[in-house]
Amino acid sequence: MKPLVIGIAGGTGSGKTTLTRELVSSFDGRVAVVYHDNYYRRRDELTYAERCDLNYDAPEAFDNGLLTEQLDRLIGGEAIECPIYDYSDHNRSERTELIEPQPIVIVEGILIFAEEEICSRCDIKLFVDTDADVRILRRIKRDVLERGRSVESVEAQYLQTVKPMHELHVEPSKRRADLIIPEGGGNLVALDMLVHRVQRQLDGALDPAPRAGS
Ligand SMILES: Nc1ncnc2c1ncn2[C@@H]1O[C@H](COP(=O)(O)OP(=O)(O)O)[C@@H](O)[C@H]1O
Ligand SMILES: O=c1ccn([C@@H]2O[C@H](COP(=O)(O)O)[C@@H](O)[C@H]2O)c(=O)[nH]1
């Protein structure tokens, strides 16, 4: 049977990964996760300083051809060797990760609904909605502690690219979502409803992607 593909989008720091982890633990062993971030383009031709100045919040920053090709293979029941991205180096690492096919495939990333070819492959589209001030506070903390950045660099990047690209690409893509979840994985009511819905689809009690009026 074709796996159920769940897309999880939302701004940086909104809580996408937290929601993804909640779903993975709710459907233990039955979920494959594909992070759009792992498909940032390889930029070996640039120096580290040049890579620091790139715009990582526009759709062109990603190798969407590779993502859709690998996603289709996963949906078709094949394992994939997914690239692994190194945020500290602003480049794709040499390592890959084996992802086995599962009944549920989660695709997560800030811009997945801004890309028709990814959006159209998602049976359930979730958008995690969190206020911008909360997101930037979380991002400063995470980027300094986990991604090797200074507070000054996070501030500069946020004002130069992250915020304008969020307003141009991420926020409008919210319209394509089936469900908007305030605060993502911290929203226990939404999580509970979502888990029940996914379970019913796995049980075959619902059409794969039912639409109003259909
Ligand atoms: N509902 C929440 N309440 C408090 N902190 C949260 C909540 N959701 C996520 N966080 C924290 O915010 C940070 C960013 O969350 P994460 O899920 O990684 O966001 P994203 O994947 O959208 O960038 C993490 O440190 C996470 O623990
Ligand atoms: O080299 C890079 C690649 C990406 N980023 C930033 O990452 C976020 C997306 O990750 P979230 O986990 O959704 O926050 C995006 O806003 C990019 O700006 C980076 O800083 N450097």
UniProtKB/TrEMBL annotation:
Cited InterPro entries: P-loop_NTPase, PRK/URK, Uridine_kinase-like
Pathway terms, separated by semicolons: Pyrimidine metabolism; UMP biosynthesis via salvage pathway; UMP from uridine: step 1/1; Pyrimidine metabolism; CTP biosynthesis via salvage pathway; CTP from cytidine: step 1/3
Protein keywords: ATP-binding, Cytoplasm, Kinase, Nucleotide-binding, Transferase
Gene Ontology MF, one: ATP binding
Pfam families documented for this protein: PRK
Phosphoribulokinase/uridine kinase domain span: 5-189
Subcellular location: Cytoplasm
Family: Belongs to the uridine kinase family.
Recorded name of the encoding gene: udk
Gene Ontology CC terms, in alphabetical order: cytoplasm
EC number(s) per entry: 2.7.1.48
The name this protein goes by in its record: Uridine kinase
Taxonomic lineage: Bacteria, Bacillati, Actinomycetota, Actinomycetes, Micrococcales
Catalytic reaction annotation: cytidine + ATP = CMP + ADP + H(+); uridine + ATP = UMP + ADP + H(+)
PANTHER family noted in UniProt: URIDINE KINASE (PTHR10285)
Organism encoding this protein: Rothia santali
Superkingdom as given in the UniProt entry: Bacteria
